[in-house]
Amino acid sequence: MDFGNAELIREETIMPMATDKNLVSKYFHEFVAQTSPLPFEISVDRAEGSYIWDSEGKKYLDFISGIAVNNLGHRHPKIIKALKEQIEKHLFVMVYGEFSIKSQANLAAKLCQLLPDPIDNVYFTSTGTEAVEGALKLAKRYTGRHKIISFKKSYHGSTHGSLSVSGNEYKKFAFRPLLPEVYQIEFNNTEDLDLIDDQTACVIMETVQGDAGLRIPNLCFIQALREKCSECGALLILDEIQVGMGRTGKLFAFEHYGIVPDILVMGKALGAGLPLGAFAASKKIMSSFTQDPVLGHITTFGGNPLSCAASLAFLECLMDEKILDSVEEKGKHLESFLDHPEIVEVRRIGLFFAVEFKDKEAVNKIVLKCRDRGLLSFWFLSCPNAFRLSPPLNISFEEIKKGGEIIRNCIEEVFKN
Ligand code: PLP
């Protein structure tokens, strides 16, 4: 093929490295792909513990933790130490699954020790979405079936497979056609479980729906779901990307319900701020990825040594320092500030909150006012009339009081005007 003179000529204009807030913002808007017309835009300078500082020195109490990622706050000293030690040894060495890597092997062993039987095998990915994709493929490969059941209003990610099983049609319609044979049922509706049959490869559910505005399943529903899946030979996949790793007060949210999934999907807080996802299952199920075809599911960066080292330090700290023991009490403490006649409902599990109002305008005003007063809250993808709170699990009672008072004052001011 003749490419002619297609040599790329680069302009020699000098582009200064952005250091001040205005230039960083200019580059952000001009060169970083935007996902919405109105980004939250805090010009981050540094972060420590429960706080983020912007480039003008303004301090924000972080009550969102990067959407339930920084479950031990920012720059936890034990996580930083583990990262430094890993950097001194090695970074990336080879695609996932070929070399045995100490931090990865230790993390897998730790997770399997913390997970109930029969889950005893972990597949690492780089993101939550990628773990969802792997879990769906694994269920199809293991059962030899292709019908998938998922839930209305759910969020499982933005790639084609994970979007197909997600439940917000507004986010899906522009990208159809998506995966065939995906059927969606209603959360907490036991009658809908009749759709699960012996053609069903899997049912995928967020144990607690996050981006639907925090929808908590009732015990009889989730137990009936578990039973129906077992009866039909359909695998139950629980997506705990957002609500796992202690967010609900238990390490895994399914522990509240006395059930065990066939495949558990993890992400977000698992990597302690570094990119890491995972899905875990019994060796019996997971081994169907080893043969026919060989390399049935592969990734380059999954289980990155640095992410695994951070994750291991995070898990050790969470468990050894018994951080989960105080999550419920902290949750109740924060809830005590969320008392206002205009609040329609506060939904809470552990340290994860949805604060619901009659309309989204009030929510927008409150979220922006809180930001201006130095407290970070955020919206939900599929519940515009509520805002979310998910502070670090190791936040102090003092910080909760400080944040709770800011939120309470902001709500009062919004409804006064
Ligand atoms: N599943 C759930 C429940 C989530 O909350 C998210 C992210 O918000 C995802 C999947 C996608 O994870 P990631 O953004 O890491 O790909």
What does this structure look like?
- This protein is α/β, with parallel strands linked by helices and 417 residues long.
- It has 13 helices and 15 strands.
- The strands form three sheets. It has a seven-stranded mixed beta sheet with strand order 4-10-9-8-7-5-6, with helices on both faces. Strands 1-2-3-13 form a four-stranded mixed beta sheet. It has a four-stranded antiparallel beta sheet with strand order 11-12-15-14.
- Strand 2 and strand 3 (59-62) form a beta hairpin.
- The radius of gyration is 22 Å and the shape is globular.
- 45% of the residues are buried.
- The model has no long low-confidence stretch (mean pLDDT 96).
- The site of pyridoxal-5'-phosphate has 16 residues, from helix 5.
- Pyridoxal-5'-phosphate binds next to helix 5.
Reading the helices and strands in chain order gives HEEEHHHEHEHHEEHEEEHHHEEHEEEH
Count of strand segments: 15
Q: How many DSSP H or I helices?
A: 13
Which small-molecule species are bound to the chains here? pyridoxal-5'-phosphate
Helix fraction bin = 25-40%
What's the story with the biggest beta sheet?
A: 7 strands, mixed
Low-confidence stretches: none
What is the rounded distance between the termini?
A: 68 Å
Walk across the major sheet and give the strand order.
4-10-9-8-7-5-6
In terms of DSSP E residues, the strand content is: 15-25%
Task: Specify Rg, calculated over alpha carbons.
Answer: 22 Å
Gross morphology: globular
Arithmetic mean pLDDT: 96
Backbone structural class: alpha/beta
